[in-house]
Amino acid sequence: MPTVSVPKQQFFELLGKQYSNEDFDELCFEFGVELDEDTTEEALKTNEEPELKIEVGANRYDLLCTEGIAQSLNEFLGRKETPNYKLSEPTTKLYIEPSTEQIRPYAAAAFLRGIKFTEKSYQSFINLQDKLHSNLCRNRTLVAIGTHDADTIKGPFHYRALPPTDIKFIPLFQTKELNGKELIDLYKQPEQKNNLGRFVHIIEDSPVFPVVMDNEGTVCSLPPLINSEHSKISLNTTNVLIECTATDKTKVEVVINQIVAMFSRYCAEPFVVEPVEVVSEHNQQSRFTPDFSSKTMEVSTQYINSCLGLEQPAQEICDNLKKLSLHATPSQKDGYLKVEIPITRPDILHPCDIMEDAAIGYGYNKLPKGEKLSSASFVAAPLPINKISDIFRAASAQASWIEVLPLTLCSHDENYKFLRVEDDGTQAVRLANPKTSEFQVVRTTLLPGLLKTVRENRKHTLPIKVFEAGDIVLKNEKLERKAYNERHWGAIYAGKNSGFEVIQGLLGKIMETFRTQWIADFGKAASTRGYWIEEDDSLPTFFPGRGAKVMFRPREGEDAKKIGTLGVLHPEVMKNFDVPYAASYVELNSEVFL
Amino acid sequence: MSDFQLEILLKLNELGTIGSTLEVFPNIDPQIVLSSLNSLKAHGKLDYTKQDKNYFTLTKEGDEIVAKGSHEMRLLQLVNKFSKLQIKEVATHMGADGKIGQAKAFKNGWISKNKDNELTVSDKISSVDAVVDETRDLLVKIQKGEYKSVDDKTLNDLKKRKLITAKKETGFQVVKGADFSTELTKLETDLTAGMVASGTYKDLKFKPYNFNSEGIFPESGALHPLSKVREEFRQIFFSMGFQEMPSNQYVDTGFWNFDALYVPQQHPARDLQDTFYLKDPIKSDLPDDKEYMENIKAVHEQGKYDSIGYRYNWKPEESQKLVLRTHTTAISAYMLKKLAENPKPTRLFSIDRVFRNEAVDATHLAEFHQVEGVLADYNLTLGDLIKFMEGFFEKMGVTGLRFKPTYNPYTEPSMEIYSWHEGLEKWVEIGNSGMFRPEMLESMGLPPNMRVLGWGLSLERPTMIKYGVQNIRELLGHKVSLDFIETNPAARLDEDLYE
User: Fold this and answer.
1) Which residue ranges does the record assign to the B5 domain (chain A) (predicted)?
2) What's the number of CA atoms in the CB half-sphere (13 Å) around residue B64?
């Protein structure tokens, strides 16, 4: 969820009240935002202005600046009406050329005329663009915003895509003219890594770069990277051109609407915006932007009341919706409300969104508590494999082993090389984008986690006896998800000696718990259900001559199958995991007992 | 009882009191005396007090002086015998001792030296036989143990001259104890099966037990605190009629983890920064139900079921990306889709691992456990959800809940659940809940009046509070301390969850 910093003093002035933190918390709670931090104490030390850091919903782009939060809270408190946004006559056009199809096909523009910025509102204007860029615009991949001093450039404007070397201008905060290619080189410098360098990848490999130019060929911006120094805005700019370029045609409208909705309040005529005629015949996107045409949604009062467990008359619902900037009136359709969706509320997708606002307007904590849900007619049931796991867990702990819960992600080496096993590529799923080499694969055995746990606890009294009942993940091409979990149980004994017989005994104890007796002579002494172990030198994780497979015959007459392995761990394995002891290990596939 | 212990008792019986063990048992090592006395004291046979004895013994040189007289006396007698003695002759007669003797004799004024470097008896001495040999007399006194009559300065002087050595001996004064007798019965430390069988315990004396002790802890295994808390949650779910979901599927598809939940394909949660994607295998199949797929595409692209949709081009490739599930809600979605085949009131839950590609710190791990409940029924209200949450959390001793509006992409309305924390004196978030969006449910084919409540919380957070764990890495993963697992108490969520 995004966090927005607002100047405390100014903010409370906008709300017309000096709130105590407690009261403000309460207001936030009811409205559905959260006061994260009040920097008053810190600010006293650094002599800066105190700020409130407010966490807002990730879908409420209208709450990403001081103006927006104040407006919404004032409406919630009944102190203000939703502004009536109006368009003036358009004076110029923006031509979108077909060449942009290759890279960034959509654009929109608008003017804010006669604007008067203060230091605070100017800062807020810049901050809102940042917030939109990092949230809704997904780091400028979807939409990029450019703002310009309209008095330095002349319409009509042209949005086109050109080879990088054909675009020459002085970028914002630079002194030298650069072409598109030089610009990329500049922003790829290490010092730009966390700044503009983050956006270079969006266009870097394209043969053409998008560019917004005025009628005289002056470059306004090279989206999504940078505006030109020539048209840069300042605190004293009175006419602002806002242009947005995008790869998503829905979001470009949302973004430009949010900006003009928030800052048209500072125009000579408040809440009046000058639209731009966008000419984009090649993709049928010719239109005037921004679009303030009324959007409405019909919602049944019965639906709202049924979800809220209330029987409110239509007017009461309308009153509650008004607090959330939704203007509702009874519809011609009987039992329905016609709800106007303001340009600031693109989060309203479905009547359920209106229903939620009706609930917030009413107050979540005032809603009548339902009495409908009784637990009488439901039958509880555990997941069968969890029940099997619980038997393993109880039996292991009773046998004096300690349960541990290592992570399921590990490095490739831990899952293979450190265990002296080759990766044949058939088993482990590999992660594409881990942040550290600790997380490269999902384990295919419980052993790495157990060995790491022993390593971290090597000062513990010896012997160390730990177990885990957990999932491994294996690839399977035939499945929709291409991989599946398999529940395993693994137990280790580590100490001054290998403890092979102890681990063998634990296996016996566990098998006994699962109604499975040991059968002598490698399964030949009886033909009943049972288990035995057979030496298996194909297991490089174990010390030669000390590795075995666990064989299980589920019932009389059936073929026995391998359900796991046990043995003395190879000294190289111990060394690889930095465990200075000898150890024995057993691991079984728990699913055979389902 | 050792022979010596018996000897002590017999001696005590004979004397009534042993004034000093040093005198009575002069040849026994004081350490053995002490341990024997202690052992007898434990049986109440006797009591003792410690007595340190300081005394001096003569060195070899001191012994010689006692025998032959002091060096100065021997020199005086020598000079007297020859009436005149060349100084250089002294060493010939007396060796190294001559020099000390000469210095002392001069100091005592016993001898004089003439101009020919000859020693003569001093004029002051009228009769050599009448001269008192003080040094020897002192040594004789000390030898007799009468050192207390000699002043400290003189004693020190003799020590410096290496004629005497200081000694210390520890002795004990011993008196009879309450249970004195010359016989000794052994105190038993424990009641044995043999004593019970034979009845001998009746005649035996038992050593007093030290009750101010913890005893010997049994060797035992232990279950991990997280799984103990998990079991508490499971029992709560079971008591409310919930079935456990097959959440044993870590790898899931973009489709089930996001699209099915109405999370748009450009949503930040789908960023590489937040979600683990797979590179091998890399692409999933699409769900078998083609109609469902079409519904999802439509509801995302242009809207359906009264929704206006997100209005973007929905790409099946994005759905087919494989991820490590970021929430168990991916499984809930799959289960709800199955429910749509035969819709009926249903209660499901899971407690299992989820994965986030986050930077690891004290409160964040790349994997953790999510507790999730799903409840489907006809015409449910928000008030039903609130009431149900109160019942659910009450079972773990958490009451007085408040609900705050919030945003989740797949629930609307969404409510964060808060409870009052006595320790922190503020409202803390304990879970998240909501009603699943119609876009999600109706795409599956669930009837519009079937509403589904969902709620979730992490397993780690209440466990960390319960067991006072500050760093999540010390709870889940290999950095856990085995001592911590072995010693932690039972997880009773109903008992002071937030103490």
Assistant:
1) 292-369
2) 10
> Mutating which of B244, B248, B433 best tests the A interface, going by the most A Cβ atoms within 10 A?
B248
Of B223, B279, B347, the CB nearest to A432: B279
DSSP A200: G
Identify the pLDDT of residue B104.
Answer: 84
Sign of the CA dihedral running A379, A380, A386, A390: negative
B281, B312, B438 member nearest A482 (Cβ): B281
Which pLDDT belongs to residue B496?
62
The mean per-residue pLDDT over the stretch B362-380 comes to: 94
Closest alpha carbon to A275 in A446, A108, A29, A455: A108
d(CA B248, CA B234): 16
CA closest to A375 among chain B residues: B240
- DSSP-derived 3-state class of residue B55: strand
pLDDT digits (tens, 9 = 90+) for B5-28: 888 888 888 888 888 888 888 888
Reported as a pLDDT band with limits 50, 70 and 90, residue B362 is confident
pLDDT at site B1: 63
Q: How far apart are CA B124 and CA A47, in angstroms?
A: 102
Is A170 in the B-facing interface, judged by CB distances under 8 Å? no
Q: Is the predicted pLDDT of residue B210 greater than 90, yes or no?
A: no
Residue by residue, DSSP assigns B229-257 as HHHHHHHHHHHTTPEEP-----EEEHHHH
Distances (CA, A) of A579 to A455, A456, A506, A574: 5, 9, 22, 5
How many other CB atoms sit within 10 Å of the CB of residue B174? 26
Q: Look up residue B216 and give its two tokens.
A: 């010997």
Q: Is B276 on the interface with A (CB under 8 A)?
A: yes
| Residues of A in Cβ contact (< 8 Å) with B344 | none
CB contact under 8 A, B244 and A381: yes
Q: Please give the average per-residue pLDDT across B115-123, as a whole number.
A: 82
* DSSP alpha helix (H) spans, B192-289: 193-198, 225-239, 254-257
Strand order in the sheet with A402-403: A402-403, A464-475, A483-495, A582-589, A561-569, A542-553, A530-535
For tokens 């005329």, the residue is: A113
pLDDT band of residue B499 (cuts 50, 70, 90) is very low
Residues of chain A with pLDDT under 50: none
Average pLDDT over residues B91-97: 82
Please tell me if residue A374 touches chain B, with a CB cutoff of 8 Å.
no
Interface check B47 vs A, CB under 8 A: no
Amino acid letter, B258: F
Q: What is the pTM of this model?
A: 0.82
CB of A407 within 8 Å of a chain B CB? The answer is yes
* Domain topology for B225-487: BirA Bifunctional Protein; domain 2 (3.30.930)
Domain range annotation of chain B: 225-487
**Local confidence band at B64 (pLDDT 50, 70, 90 cut-offs):** confident
Torsion angle (degrees, nearest 10) of CA A183, A185, A189, A192: 30
ipTM of the assembly? 0.93
Q: What is the pLDDT of residue B372?
A: 97
Q: Taking Cα atoms as reference points, which of A108, A103, A93 lies closest to residue A242?
A: A108
Whether B497 has a pLDDT exceeding 60, the answer reads: no
A402-403 vs A464-475, strand pairing mode: parallel
**Of B158 and B414, the one with more pLDDT:** B414
Residues in CB range of A203: below 8 A, 6 or more apart = A103, A104, A209, A210, A224, A225
How far apart (Å, rounded) are the C-alpha atoms in residues B5 and B37? 8
Taken in order of first residue, the domains within chain A and their CATH numbers are 3-76 (3.30.56.10), 86-289 (3.50.40.10), 295-364 (3.30.56.10), 384-593 (3.30.930.10)
Q: Do A483 and B359 touch (CB under 8 A)?
A: no
Residue A308 in contact with partner chain B when CB distance is under 8 A: yes
